[in-house]
Amino acid sequence: MDKYDLILRMNTHFNQLESSLESLHQQLAEFPLLAAQVFTLPDIEKGQEHEAIEQINVTPVVGEEARELGLQHFRRLFIHHNKQNVSSKAAVRLPGVLCFALDKTEYRDCITLIEHINQLKHQLEHIITVESGLPSEQRFEFVHTHLHGLITLNTYRTLTPLINPSSVRFGWANKNIIKNITKEDLLTQLNKSLNAGRAVPPFTKEQWAEWVSKEIADVQRLPETAKLKIKRPVKVQPIARVWYQEQQKQVQHPCPMPLIALCQTELGASMPKIGELPNYDAAQIKHKHKPQAKPLRLLIPRLHLYTDLE
């Protein structure tokens, strides 16, 4: 695809996203507020992005102040929206829920706008991560050349509307991302990294090529029957558990920013019960018993890649 056309489309989509988020801000600022509760978390300062998290102290905010914090958070897309000492490599999180009373027309307009915003977010992510054809390590420069200071994680995060929820409770999730990968796909990924001809600090270009070549050789030695698994640890995340009384159903959502509860009062919906997000303390976590998994051998540490073979 023509690079100029790609850049033009990226900028056009982003301008539409900013405009749509402004419209949503105006909409949600005018709707009757049934309840709002958000939980501010400590800032992650520059240089602390990769430190293990043992404790997180939560500060609850309610009412109109919570609504205003939430509406501002939806539009927090650039580094300059953060405080000066806050890391730009870690997205600021603001779990919580904003609950609004809506009539039929307001509900239709609001849900249509939220869906449009999420569609723009998906399209932007696709343009940057897929259509650009760039490997992940080159996307930063591409994005920041044309949208200077953009925090892509904040930009990609979609809004989550809740339709007439009965209750919203909060908690913490601490788990691994596990993904099976074929030997063929892994070799394709490694060869792409090798052929890029880059230097990855602290390696020189030649040292990095030698390192990746060794990884390729290690994978090629594996039999075709070998099972390969990427098991990447994820930092603790706030989550919300939403209960719908009529459907007798619970849905769990990641909650890096406030959920938007749309309560159709004309249909008899009322304010949901809202729980608290407790402080996080890694020492107090009680793990459920799980059957002992087959031990895995770490094959490529930087990719968190494991194999079932010794």
TrEMBL record:
* Lineage of the species this protein comes from: Bacteria, Pseudomonadati, Pseudomonadota, Gammaproteobacteria, Enterobacterales
Keywords linked to the UniProt accession: Cytoplasm, DNA replication, DNA-binding
Note whether Ligase occurs among the keywords.
no
What's this protein's name?
DNA replication terminus site-binding protein
Q: Which NCBIfam families match?
A: rep_term_tus (TIGR02648)
Q: Which SUPFAM superfamilies match?
A: Replication terminator protein (Tus)
Its biological purpose = Trans-acting protein required for termination of DNA replication. Binds to DNA replication terminator sequences (terA to terF) to prevent the passage of replication forks. The termination efficiency will be affected by the affinity of this protein for the terminator sequence.
Which superkingdom? Bacteria
InterPro entries for this protein: DNA_replication_term_site-bd, Tus_dom1, Tus_sf
State its location(s): Cytoplasm
